TrEMBL record:
Pathway: Lipid metabolism; fatty acid beta-oxidation. It catalyses: (3Z)-decenoyl-CoA = (2E)-decenoyl-CoA; (2E)-tetradecenoyl-CoA = (3Z)-tetradecenoyl-CoA; (3Z)-octenoyl-CoA = (2E)-octenoyl-CoA; (3Z)-dodecenoyl-CoA = (2E)-dodecenoyl-CoA. Keywords: Acetylation, Fatty acid metabolism, Isomerase, Lipid metabolism, Mitochondrion, Transit peptide. It comes from Drosophila albomicans (Fruit fly). It comes from the Eukaryota. SUPFAM superfamilies: ClpP/crotonase (SSF52096). One of its GO terms (biological process) is fatty acid beta-oxidation. InterPro entries: ClpP/crotonase-like_dom_sf, Enoyl-CoA_hydra/iso. The gene is LOC117565899. Key enzyme of fatty acid beta-oxidation. Able to isomerize both 3-cis (3Z) and 3-trans (3E) double bonds into the 2-trans (2E) form in a range of enoyl-CoA species, with a preference for (3Z)-enoyl-CoAs over (3E)-enoyl-CoAs. The catalytic efficiency of this enzyme is not affected by the fatty acyl chain length. One of its GO terms (molecular function) is delta(3)-delta(2)-enoyl-CoA isomerase activity. The keyword RNA-binding does not apply. This is Enoyl-CoA delta isomerase 1, mitochondrial. Its main location: mitochondrion.
Length: 282
């Protein structure tokens, strides 16, 4: 998979305007800045960018599109002014449909393999809260810029669920092992300021525009680096985690299906959904 992506890494001419590359789907948009050649992938699923089957499929398709059109980099962000992504749409896991839940988890695996394994430089402009699956997306990127007063982290244990190994390795590729282990066990959500202090995010910006500009600046640091050498270096550094999921995706799916169907897990998810609804009516 990575080999064919690498074939796309040839220099290209740049123009001066920005163009909408894809509106084929309604849940993501891809806008390429023709001056920098950088693509911005925006998640757009109100109210909270909950990662359901359709959004995951659209994100995957958009990443493939960006890989295919020789963009110089990918910036992931959200159209919601206060939420990057609320993580997995809990309705996909609560009282699930047998076929759909398989497609859902497979789509999540596809997104992670494409984003974590992307041959182009990736950055996340985290313009809002980013729990669980939202944190997975952000930490799959190479660089993170976050707006103040939001939260980010893998809070799975607080929901009574267990993050799969590949969520944990992604988290661990950003945070020191000891800190990652403690945060995962605690289900800790970090404020922007805390996330910056521990290195979970690289920079703080005061607006989405500034966050995108800082992400573009990061991607710009590769301008004078040979793209093939850069991509092969990234590929080698990330190969172990990618290979592990590629080799074990069927078992990973079966584990998820078994786990999510446990009565205790279903009960926990139901209670959590109720608590989210109650919060909304307060
Ligand atoms: C041994 C190995 C076995 C492996 C087994 C694997 C097991 C599964 C692993 C799963 C991995 C990942 C898990 C996840 O990603 S789960 C999702 C976790 N997300 C959260 O906990 C976030 C919950 N949401 C919030 O904290 C807040 O909503 C917010 C994002 C901070 C936004 O706050 P807000 O005040 O702006 O909005 P709010 O009123 O709360 O929400 C608006 C409506 O959206 C609904 N909603 C929010 N989040 C979700 C969600 N994740 N899924 C579905 N629906 C969500 C909320 O209920 C409101 O709805 P309504 O308007 O009241 O109808």
């Amino acid at each position: 998979m990575m080999r064919s992506k690498l074939m796309n890494l040839v220099p290209r001419a740049v123009a001066t305007t920005s163009r909408q590359m894809s509106t084929a789907t309604k849940l993501t948009t891809v806008q390429v800045d023709d001056k920098t050649g950088i693509a911005t992938l925006t998640m757009n699923r109100p109210p909270v960018n909950g990662l359901n089957l359709e959004l995951l499929r659209d994100i995957h398709q958009s990443i493939e599109e960006i890989e295919g059109n020789k963009s110089r980099g990918l910036i992931l962000t959200s159209s919601n002014p206060t939420i990057f992504s609320a993580g997995l749409d809990i309705f996909e896991m609560y009282k699930p449909d047998k076929e759909r839940i398989r497609a859902f988890w497979t789509a999540l695996q596809d997104v992670w393999l494409a984003l974590y394994g992307s041959s182009v430089p990736t950055a996340a402009a985290i313009n809002g809260h980013s729990p669980a699956g939202g944190c997975l997306l952000a930490t799959s990127c190479e660089y993170r810029v976050m707006l103040p007063k939001y939260t980010i982290g893998l809070n799975e244990t607080k929901l009574g669920i267990v993050a799969p190994k590949w969520f944990m390795s992604t988290f661990e590729s950003v945070l020191p092992r000891r800190l990652a282990e403690r945060a995962l066990n605690q289900g800790r959500m970090f404020t922007t300021e805390e996330a910056l202090a521990v290195g979970l995010v690289d920079e703080v910006a005061n607006s989405k525009e500034e966050a995108i500009a800082k992400c573009a600046q990061f991607i710009g640091t590769f301008a004078k680096v040979n793209p093939l050498a850069r991509a092969l270096t990234k590929q080698q550094l990330r190969a172990e985690e990618l290979k592990q999921l590629e080799d074990e995706r069927v078992q990973d799916l079966e584990k998820f299906i078994f786990f999510v169907n446990q009565p205790a897990v279903q009960k926990g998810l139901g209670i959590y959904l109720e608590s989210l609804k109650k919060k909304a009516t307060k």
